Structure formats: structure tokens, C-alpha cells
Amino acid sequence: MIYWGGNPAECHPRHFTKYTIMQKGKFVPNGRKGRTMVLVDIRETPSAKAADLFLQIRPGKDFEVLTILRALIKNQRVDSRIAEETGLTLEQLQNLVDRMKNARFGIIFFGMGLSMTRGKHMNSAGVLMLAAEMNAYTKFVAMPMRGHGNVTGSDMVLRWSTGYPFGVNLCRGYPRFNPGEFSTVDLLVRGDIDAALILGADPGATMPQPGIDHLARIPTIVLDPKVTHTSRLARVHITTAATGISAPGTVYRMDEIPLPLRPALKSPYPTDEEVIRRIRELVAKKPAWNETTNGELATV
Amino acid sequence: MTLTIVKNATCTFCGCVCDDIELHADSERIVKTKGACSLGEAWFRNHTAEHLYPDALIDGHPATVDDAVERAAEIMHRANMPLVYGLSNITCEAQREAVTLAEMAGAIIDSHTSL
Q1: What angle do CA A273, A278, A284 make, to 5 degrees?
Q2: A217 lies in the same domain as A260
Q3: In this structure, are A164 and A271 located in the same domain?
Q4: Residues 76..115 of B with a Cβ closer than 8 Å to A: which?
Q5: Which of A114, A116, A254, B4 is the most buried (most CB within 10 A)?
Q6: Does residue A64 sit in the same domain as residue A96?
Q7: At CA B33, angle to CA A225 and CA B20, rounded to 5?
Q8: What would the DSSP string read from start to end of B71-82?
Q9: pLDDT tens by residue, chain B, 115 residues
Q10: Domain containing B18: what range?
Q11: Residue A265's pLDDT band (cuts 50, 70, 90)
Q12: So what's the ipTM on this one?
């Protein structure tokens, strides 16, 4: 098991014990003793204590390390000086490749330390390619470490309804997918969009400043259990019941298993589902979009 | 005060979605959690059933949900290229509604995955 650019000991405290290294399985009857755990990160986090092997790479060198690993698994020659630029020696990298090839079933869990640093989407693609190519030698998979409770669910719902997992543009009446062009940070920083509906997120606290400025400039609608930073710069805020605490429904675990929610409280507020449905029903009653009736946002 | 005990409750704080939590709740708040990690416990304690916030706000002023929904529909309908963003802390049922709304409004729909 390889954890890359993530710190589950602090960010997903039960990951090791409930789901991964500590669990006994049909083919791993000894649990932790039957597994090798490798941590790849730019600094020694508390998760390193749980690892058999900790590989500290230089910040921003994830893509280079992944590319060298992909070369080494195919026995291609790699210059040791190029390898050393990543913060690891060629021997360390070859050792990792040997361990990966000797595994009966390997997995790479990758976190935001990989997907949000230099290289971004290309780093994620690199991990997925590495896992795919390892299947020429043994069974190998990759899985992102998801931060939010139902971010996997949004990938699933968008996939089965539009064919793409995120950043889907439905502007032309059919889905188009292009991370970097139709992803939120880029859209906001470029100022491409002319209205925003924010559902259970707080971009007003987390986006780069030019993006926040754009959210304040356009009519923004927020649905959230609390009045957030984004609510304060929005035209419309609607308070909704908290998912899983007072709102029922289904969420997906990061390994794509759907689970039912069992709320313990009754909220005085409507659920997100109910409010979005009501907005949708009102939009459905309005005439179809055309250039003469739409587009004059200043009058809203 | 009678306590409601919910067994095998599901925690939606992080992507682990642990579904073996026991919650003890009175009518307003969760008073005890069993089996949750420190992050999960903070999550369950953080949300209550109290009416702490206004039902809705329009331009920063308290408003009814009906008016806010009306205004939201008007904005989504008028926009040339609206964005529907977030999705990561709402249920799949709500996400389905959001996709339908996005399709109807000709929107771009995106989640935290793109970060």
C-alpha cells in the first residue's frame, strides 16, 4: 500500500484501522504483518510512523518521481543524476519498484499533496498511468483520498448522468469536459461565469482572491446549513438542513460504496434536495433561454 | 429529557464515511458519539437542530424561503453561463436535482474534485 501526498493519520484518522493496513482479509490473514506500507511525501508527517518505508521527495517533484517509476517498471535506463533531483536516489526508487512488482495486490492512495501541487491534473494522471501500467506485472489500483463526505457521490452522479466526473459544461445542451477550462477556480479567476449556485461549499473562504472578487460581482446563490463567508457576498442565501445530521439521503464512501444516512436530529430548515427541486421547478416554468429575454443580469 | 439513540449512523465529515457510529441525541443536539474519530465527533457536535440562522437572506436581509427560491430561479434562468459548484457535502439525491437544474439552465457543474 502506497500513500502519496496524504496524511491519513491526521486527516482520515480511521483509514488505517477501519479500511486498510490493519484489517485482516481473506488473502491477508495476518493483517498489518502481511502488508508493506510506503508513504511518499515532502515532509515527515505523523503518518510516517505507520509506514514501513518513508520516502521524502522534494516539493513539486511528484511528476518526475512518477515518470521515473514508470520508466523503471519497464526496465528502462534512468540517469542517477536525474533521479537525485527528486530528493531520492535511484536505488531507493528501484527498491520501491521491486516491492511494487513483488506485491500480489498493490494500491496507491493519493492525496491533495499530489493533486494540488505543481503538475496538478497531470500528477493525478501520472498516478493513474503508473497503477494501470503495473497491471502488466501484478494487480494494482489507485484511489484518491477524498476530503469531503460525499465528493465521491458527486463524481458518481455526474458520471452516470453526464458521462464525466466533474467540471462538466452543459452550456451547449450536451456535456463537455475539460479540467482547467471548466473547473471552478479557473472559471472564477478568469471571470467567465455570470451567476453561481454554491451548494454546501465555501469558496468565499478558500478560493484565490480574484475568484472571490468575481463571486461578489455576479449574482451568487448559496445553500448551506450555516451563514458562510460566501453567503455574506451572495445575493441569495438559503439555510438548509445538515447532511447526515438532520437531512437523510445517500452518500458514497471514497471506494465508491453507497451508504444510507441515519440522521439523529430534525432540522427546522428544508433539505438541499427540497430547495434545489423547488428552484428547478420554477426554472422549468420559465420560457426557454434566448438572447433577447436572457442575459440582462443587471435587471435581476 | 428522552434521548434518541441512533445506531450505525453515518459520518459525512471526510471521505471515509464511517457507518458504525452510535449517536445519542436530545431534541436539539447530539450529546454523545461512540466510535467516531476526533474529527467526526467535532462534526456531529458542530451542527444542532436549533434555529440559529435566518431561513433565508436576500441581499443580506432576512427573507422567506419562498422569496429566496423565486429569486434564485430568476438568477439561474437569466444567466448566460451560470456555475453550479460544491456538491461535496450534499446527498446524492440533492446532486441529481442539481444536475437537472444545471442542464435546464445551461450551466457548468463542478465539485471539489476539480481543486
Answers
A1: 120
A2: yes
A3: yes
A4: 76-115
A5: A114
A6: yes
A7: 95
A8: HHHHHHHH-SSE
A9: 688 999 999 999 999 999 999 999 998 999 999 999 999 999 999 999 999 999 999 999 999 999 999 999 999 999 999 999 999 999 999 999 999 999 999 999 999 988 7
A10: 4-46
A11: very high
A12: 0.96
Q: All 3 cell numbers of residue A133? A: 501500467
Q: What is the signed CA dihedral for A41, A42, A46, A50, rounded to 10 degrees? A: 30
Report DSSP state, residue A54.
Answer: E
Residues A90 and A204 in one domain: no
Domain range for A289: 151-299
CB interface of A with B, residues 49-108, below 8 Å: none
Domain count, chain A: 2
Could you tell me which residues are beta bridge partners of residue B4? B25
Contact yes or no for A168 and B110 at CB 8 A: yes
Cell numbers at A95, concatenated: 527498491
Identify whether the C-beta of residue A250 lies closer than 8 Å to the C-beta of residue A258.
Answer: yes
Query: Would B91 be classed as within a structural domain?
Result: yes
Contact A73, A97 (CB under 8 A): yes
Neighbours of A43 (CB within 10 A): 10
Report the 3 state secondary structure along A175-233: CEECCCCCCHHHHHHHCCCCEEEEECCCHHHHCCHHHHHHHHHCCEEEEECCCCHHHHH
Which are the contacts of B24, defined by CB distance < 8 A and separation ≥ 6? B3, B4, B5, B30, B31, B32, B33, B34
Cell of A180: 482547467
